[in-house]
Amino acid sequence: MKNLLDLNGEVAVVIGAAGVLAGAIAEAFAEAGARVAVLDLNAEKGEERAQKINQGGGRARFFFCNVLERETLRKANEEVESALGAPTILLNGAGGNDPKTTVSDDNPFENIPLENWRRNFDLNLVGGALLPCQVFGPGMVARKRGSIINIASVSAHIPLSKVVSYSASKAAVLSLTRFLAREWARHGVRVNSITPGFFPAEQNRRLLFNEDGTPNARTQAVWNHTPMGRFGEAQELLGAALFLASSKASSFVTGADIRVDGGFLAQTI
Ligand SMILES: NC(=O)c1ccc[n+]([C@@H]2O[C@H](COP(=O)([O-])OP(=O)(O)OC[C@H]3O[C@@H](n4cnc5c(N)ncnc54)[C@H](O)[C@@H]3O)[C@@H](O)[C@H]2O)c1
């Protein structure tokens, strides 16, 4: 049987690929044969990621983007097309939580500054999904070929304590994913999402760990609520990402959300 997860001939744009989760996915796409465009705000780590892929025998290049600025995405799209070919896969992996929106005794819900609330929506919804879909989507639609993967969160399904605006912005990502799945299905472009559970990364370090790196009370609560009783590792997202990226493996899959959460959303009490 042919390799269902083979990505030879694909050009994958992986946004946030300097980071932990999208970075691991970028490496997996390259290993599966795709030419990979590493897009990120962080040029130093982005270059490192592209270099690591190339040294491992894959083909990758770094392109700067700030997902909050459409023009940088438009420029990156042009540069990717001339350097690697027209994008056929888009993984939207930039995102995070603005700490000033985290509810606590010192920062009650009613005091969350609107500016910071908006910042979360800008990063996770507008930059984390909407603008890249607006910039990279039409080319895929015109060529009738594409797979777009957005990164949601368990908090998109049931809001987590403390991170109210992050949760709401990720719920909006799920909604946008389904809207575009319906909109572009007849144009050969599939749009799906992955819901990761808890994976230690840069953007959630302060929420999950004490200053000295030891797990805090929230981490214990997460583990207690996760049937598998542990955090996920970035490598454990790769199967879902490869499946959704591959038009051989998931040709009839659009508007889907794959939960990779150790059972977090399956548990109540
Ligand atoms: N780690 C988790 O447990 C977890 C759980 C659920 C969802 N997620 C989501 O997964 C995605 C990846 O997060 P991660 O955990 O790997 O975090 P990370 O901080 O390691 O990576 C995020 C990357 O996004 C980049 N980025 C941030 N703002 C940007 C901007 N304006 N323009 C371009 N790039 C920008 C950062 O430079 C970084 O490389 C995010 O959407 C996050 O919300 C993570």
Which keywords apply here?
269 residues; alpha/beta; Rossmann fold; 2 domains; seven-stranded parallel sheet; 8 helices; 7 strands; 41% helix; binds nicotinamide-adenine-dinucleotide
Kindly name the structural category.
Answer: alpha/beta
Q: Enumerate the distinct ligands.
A: nicotinamide-adenine-dinucleotide
Gyration radius from CA atoms, angstroms: 18 Å
Q: What is the molecular shape?
A: globular
H/E element order: EHEHEHEHEHEHHHE
| Annotated CATH topology of the largest domain | Rossmann fold
CATH superfamily name of the largest domain?
A: NAD(P)-binding Rossmann-like Domain
The CATH level-2 architecture of the largest domain is identified as 3-Layer(aba) Sandwich
Beta strand %: 5-15%
- Biggest sheet: strand arrangement: 3-2-1-4-5-6-7
Oligomer: single chain
Helix content: 40-55%
Number of extended strands? 7
Low-confidence stretches: none
Number of discrete domains: 2
- Arithmetic mean of pLDDT: 96
Largest sheet properties: 7 strands, parallel
Please tally the helical runs, counting DSSP H or I stretches of 4 or more residues.
Answer: 8
Query: CA-to-CA gap between the ends?
Result: 43 Å
